[in-house]
Amino acid sequence: MAKKAFKAESKRLLDLMIHSIYTHKEIFLRELISNASDALDKRYYRALGDENISFDREAFYIRIEADKTSRTLTIRDTGIGMDRDALESNLGTIARSDSFDFKQSSDPKEDISIIGQFGVGFYSAFMVAKSVTVHSRAVDSEESWEWYSEGADGYTMRKAADMEPGTVVSLVLKENAEEENYDDFLDPYRLKELVRKYSDFIKYPIKMETIHEESTEDETLNSMVPIWRKNKNELKTEDYDSFYMDKHFGFEKPLRHIHVSVEGAVSYTAILYIPAKAPYDFYTREYEKGLELYSNGVMIMQKCGDLLPDYFSFAQGLVDSADLSLNISRELLQHNRQLKLIAKRIERDIKAELLKMMENDRETYEGFFKGFGRQLKYGVYTDWGMHKETLQDLLLFYSSTEKKPTSLKEYVSRMKEGQKAIYYAAGETVEKLARLPQAERLSEEGYEILYFTEDVDEFAIRMLNEYDKNPFKNVSESNLDLQDEEKPEESDEQKAIFAAVQAELGEKVQGVRASARLKSHPACLVTEGGLSIEMEKTLAHMPDNPGIKAEKFLEINTSHPVFAAMSVAHPDSAERFAAIARVLYNQALLIEGLPVEDPIAFADDIWAIVG
After folding, report:
1. d(CA 558, CA 534)
2. Phi (first) and psi of residue 349, to 5 degrees
3. How many Å apart are CA 268 and CA 266, to the nearest integer?
4. CA atoms within 13 A on the CB side of 504
5. Which of 67, 247, 478, 560 has a CA-to-CA distance to 200 between 20 and 30 Å?
6. What stretch of H or E contains 259?
7. Does residue 476 sit in helix, strand or coil?
């Protein structure tokens, strides 16, 4: 038998197949099984129009055989097979796809799910094999032929022993290298794992002989009929939950599942899940978002991040579409126009399901929000607020009046007549915010306040700017936009006291003035400008902290006994007056959760006042 050279600049192209195109060597098994599946499909389609070709579904399968002694891995199929010319044409010319030609020549009205389209998948076998033998007989031929190759140097062809129609691909695996364990692909458990990972939903049984003690049995490795291709009315919640567990999407039952089948510019089927709890690494850089991506039941990517926006990265599940433009290795997409269309629809489906959960099963939604709400808030804040319209109705914040989480829509529905703003307070805990001096007046007058206890909350709200034309207003801002809000009148004596306090505190505050909001507390800090005290604290903990400070003003309650004591001390007792001024400022810092610059001096000031 004379060795023949490959066509199409074989040496360079085959070297590309082996070393560059495929990321993971294990992909070869997926490719060979997909080729076998295509062969079975072709026999089926041929049988539809040719009464001389039979197709008994029970007799058609794919079989995997592993022989550790001879280091041989074999994949058999009972498909359409190849005659001499087909072997020569398909395997002697790299990058020629018989499957692609078959699909192109078929009636476009037929639903043909042939997978192969580039004619290179077969050659991935050379990533793990030192030689490959293909033994085949076409369904309309009486002869069997054998194709043999050891790689880029070429191939041989010869007439072979008779066999039933179909194809047998035998790989003699390479010897183990320092960093490559090719024995792995002869291990039955590893082969089962790869079949279930990449080819579980091939529609023909993939069989392998399994040894159990002293007996052997034929085991079907794949489930064949994917759950997403079944009619929804055939499935129960338990079926979706079982699939979720089987695919290891999570260890607890999901909160919700979404099963959609879409026909249109891009047709696809998807099953999406909303998990009950966040994975342990969800808020770390190690977490990898993405849905499983299939093309006609064959896994293309295990984590396709392009299918999910970051703010919905908690979603688990899969998408199967025959319309994707795959690259030559079928590990990635050539371009993402179709993917963008699918991702946009998936985004709408997830949002709709979350809104439905919020409305119809509030307790469950609140549990979901505890785990994933922070991610939604980050989604509002990131990308310069591009997604705020999508996410604003999914947010929950604790309500001062309802004593439970509430949505912005619900807050607005309860706003008092004439109320001009949505009020919020930002701090460490709900308990501390409920006692915040700045909120005294609002609380007494029955205004609802949203409590922000996460560092991202205020940044997200500032990005929203308003909701339903109602601006957001921090209770610590100098102007609260209240209907009857008037600047308190200050007597000449009070003005002199405030000026003296300002002189004592210097640049620590931008001003000192009488307060219209305080009822029982002696003093508080308020801010002006876009930066609040809580935002200042958050920025201070960032690695590249620019040192930006909030523009602070000290407001003093002129009806409080402390102010009366300050009035007595001014101007007769300068030391006592200065100590009171410093204590008022430092206690206002403490209320805000800011550090006192000199705790010892603060303690001395207190003793000076009470002594």
Report:
1. 26
2. -65, -40
3. 7
4. 22
5. 67
6. strand 256-262
7. coil
The CA distance from 86 to 137, in Å, is 10
Residues of the chain with pLDDT under 70: 1, 6-23, 93-120, 212-213, 326-335, 483-485
Helix (H, G, I), strand (E, B) or coil at 285: coil
pLDDT value of position 108: 47
127 and 108 Cβ atoms separated by less than 8 Å: no
Give the 3-state secondary structure of 134-181: EEEECCCCCCEEEEEEEECCEEEEEEECCCCCEEEEEEEECCCCCCCC
Amino acid 118: pLDDT: 35
**DSSP assignment of 578-610, as one string?**
HHHHHHHHHHHHHHTTPPPS-HHHHHHHHHHHH
Task: Please check whether residue 36 is in contact with residue 62, taking contact to mean a CB–CB distance below 8 angstroms.
Answer: yes
- DSSP, residue by residue, 417-471: TT--SEEEEESS-HHHHHT-GGGHHHHHTT--EEEE-SHHHHHHHHHH-EETTEE
Q: Which two tokens stand for residue 299?
A: 């896994």
Residues 529-548, buried b or exposed e (16+ Cβ, 10 A)? eebbbbbbbbbeeeeeeeee
Torsion, Cα of 458, 460, 466, 467 (10° steps): -110
Positions of E strands within 42-128: 62-67, 72-77
pLDDT score, position 119 = 52
User: Rg for the chain (alpha carbons), in Å?
Assistant: 36
Q: How far apart are CA 45 and CA 138, in angstroms?
A: 14
pTM of the model: 0.81
In this prediction, residue 571 carries a pLDDT of: 79
Backbone φ, ψ for residue 92 (5° rounding): -90, -10
Reading the block at residue 338, the tokens are 């179709």
Taking the C-alpha atoms of residue 300 and residue 295, their distance in angstroms, rounded to an integer, is: 7
Strand order across the beta sheet in which 256-262 lies: 256-262, 268-274, 316-320, 291-295, 298-304
For residue 369, the surrounding DSSP H or E stretch is: helix 362-381
Q: What is the dihedral of CA 79, 83, 84, 90, to 10 degrees?
A: -50
3-state per-residue secondary structure call for 506-539: HHHCCEEEECCCCCCCCEEEEEECCCCHHHHHHH
SS3 at position 98: helix
Residue from 510, 551, 511, 555 nearest 531 by CA: 551
User: Any alpha helices (H) in 58-110, and if so which ranges?
Assistant: 84-92, 98-105
Q: What is the spatial distance between Cα 561 and Cα 397, in angstroms, rounded to a whole number?
A: 36
Residue whose token pair is 């390479």: 174
Predicted local distance difference test score (pLDDT) of residue 57:
77
Structure tokens at 298: 């064959």
Both tokens of residue 33?
């099984």
pLDDT at residue 115 in the model: 43
CA atoms within 13 A on the CB side of 466: 6
**Tokens coding 124:** 């991935």
CA 349/CA 355 separation, integer angstroms = 10
Query: Which tokens belong to 159?
Result: 């007439």
